[in-house]
Amino acid sequence: MTQTIPISLLDFNKGQLKGLPKNPRFFRDYRYEAMKKSIAESPEMLQLRELIVYPYPEGRYVVVCGNLRLRACKELGYKELPCKVLDPSTDVKKLREYATKDNVNFGENDMDVMANEWDKDELQDWGVEFAPEKQTDKFKERFDAITDESAVYPLIPKFDEKHELFIISSANEVDSNWLRERLGMQRMRSYKTGKVSKSNVVDIKDVRHALEDSNTKP
To answer: How far apart are CA 43 and CA 35, in angstroms?
Structure first.
């Protein structure tokens, strides 16, 4: 039976009915605000989807379905709301079932249809959520696309866009090891490793310190 009940007589489900746990449903702020905006713009929806309540002592009612709508309506200044009043003899298992099923979303939205055939801004105003657009990292895409076969020296995109480069090439391991030992370049970072060659990066400060130290040795 549907009745219009003063909000002052409606209680949130806080587990006061034995066998019916407190309402587990919650929205994060932006979703709650979207729901509140939806009610403010289309109040007639409250008549089409009433709160479902259960009679409680002293003429009060516990809200079984619609706790968040009740909260929003209180903040919007509503004084009374349409409610579907359950029979007092309703089994508590049924109350749990109603509360659970009211919060279950059966089916899925076809996001391609919604994005291409519906007004996205309008849907978002009505509380529909879209996955955030993936941010593209053009520099990362360029760098990741470089392979040992396609790399062209001295192009080193990870560094040449931010730093001035000095490149020393080595054709064999003996010379490479000599340079590492001579300049104390144990802290080098590899920016690209592969089957053909290995390229390393060392900060100019480390090279400077290594040269200065070598000049002071007898």
So the answer is: 11
